[in-house]
């Protein structure tokens, strides 16, 4: 995915139990890992200035704990960000 001129590199999120923010319910674990330092974000994106440019990426993962079928929908956040007040 390319967004704001940044291209993603192959990267693996942590194991579910080591994610800093997570919630398990109804057979799924939702986890978020903030990539809040340039040294971390540049492992995931092709440029090393994301944080100093004012962008804090978040890795979001959903783990299927129950083995049930899951359906995901792609959401494009660009319109919301483009119209964000103060941008």
The N- to C-terminal Cα distance equals: 22 Å
Unreliable spans are none
State the shape. Answer: globular
Helicity, in percent? 10-25%
- Mean pLDDT over all positions: 79
- Please outline the major beta sheet: 3 strands, antiparallel
Strand order of the biggest β-sheet: 3-4-5
Q: Which tags fit this structure?
A:
single chain, alpha+beta, three-stranded antiparallel β-sheet, 5 strands
Describe what this molecule looks like in 3D:
The protein has 87 residues and is an alpha+beta fold. The protein has one domain (2-67). 14% of the residues lie in helices and 26% in strands. It has helices at residues 38-44, 78-82; strands at 2-3, 6-7, 21-25, 28-34, 58-64. A 3-stranded antiparallel beta sheet has the order 3-4-5, with no helix packed on it. The model has no long low-confidence stretch (mean pLDDT 79).
């Amino acid at each position: 995915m390319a967004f704001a001129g940044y291209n993603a590199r192959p990267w693996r999120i942590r194991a579910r139990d080591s994610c800093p923010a997570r919630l398990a319910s109804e057979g799924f674990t939702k986890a978020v890992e903030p990539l809040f330092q340039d040294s971390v974000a540049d492992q995931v994106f092709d440029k090393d200035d994301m944080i100093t440019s004012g962008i804090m990426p978040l890795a979001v993962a959903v783990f299927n704990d129950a083995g049930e079928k899951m359906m995901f929908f792609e959401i494009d956040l660009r319109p919301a960000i483009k119209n964000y007040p103060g941008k």
